[in-house]
Amino acid sequence: MSSLVVNTNLSALDAYNNLNTTNEALSTAISRLSSGLQIQTAADNPSGYVISQGLLSQTNGYGQAVSNAQNGVSVLQTAEGALNQITSVLQTMDQLALANANSGATDTTAMQANQDQFSALQTQIDQIAQSTQFGTQQLLNGNYANQTFQIGAFVGGVNEITVSIPTVTSSALGVSSTQASIGTYTAASNAVSAVQAAISTVNAYEAQVGATQNELQSVIQNLTVGQQNMKSAYSSIVDVNMAKEMTAFTTDQILMQSGIAMLSQAQQAPSLVLKLLG
pLDDT > 70: what percent of the chain? Predict the structure, then answer.
């Protein structure tokens, strides 16, 4: 259609529409460059937004699972330290029992002194078992049983690990004041067997706790790698390619300037009709 009309300036309308399109593209480029994100709302990319939010949720879940597993390691390290102390106490008790079982060289005064120390150590075992705790949770008195650590981004199955720490009071170990004494040669001989059995039991518990620690450490390493991969996938969807977007921004700026210039020229086209009228 000819541009030499007055009522309808199609060239100006066309330039105006192109200018609006360029302006929208320029606004999008500015928004992306200023935020560093190519998906800020669901309107930007509905399917990409849904996928990215799922990845973000899983990434955050991995992060919390790492923290949970690290707390689990701290719990077990606390328990392991206390178990190691109990083992040390039992080793001393074993020495005292062996000393009092040596009837050929230990007199009654020495036996009583050893018995007093033996009794104090029995009390110390119970004190350790009752006072060892993580936060408000007691670990060694039998209350820490079937405790669940959430070590994954989802619930159930491999995302959880159940931990129990056995009771290590003097009674549970068979070396309480009612179960073992070294006040006589015969009692001391029997106490040797009881204490050495307790040492073996606590050693087995320590090995169990140590194995669980190693398992959690392995889980932490695996979760850390998984979290990195999730972050990478999330970034590839959501984060803007700054170089590519800057190129688009520069192009849009040029088109914006030329569009404004052409709109101005198109608006002047009807004035050519005046020459015909002249």
Answer: 95
Per-residue pLDDT, averaged over 172-176, amounts to 96
CATH 1.20.1330.10 fits 47-238, yes or no: yes
- Residue whose tokens read 């170089």: 243
Distance CA 241, CA 38 (A): 8
- What's residue 192's pLDDT? 96
**What pLDDT score does 245 carry?**
82
Measure the CA–CA gap between 239 and 155, rounded to whole angstroms.
Answer: 29
Domain coordinates of the chain in residue numbers?
Answer: 10-37+241-277, 47-238
How many CA atoms lie within 13 Å of 40's alpha carbon, on the beta-carbon side?
12
Tokens 């929208």 locate to: 24
Inter-CA distances, 22 with 47, 71, 106, 147, 247, Å: 25, 54, 102, 60, 14
Residues in a beta bridge with 134: 137
- Enumerate residues 6+ apart whose C-beta is below 8 A from 34: none
At position 246, the amino acid (one-letter code) is M
Q: Specify which residues 160 forms β-bridges with.
A: 150
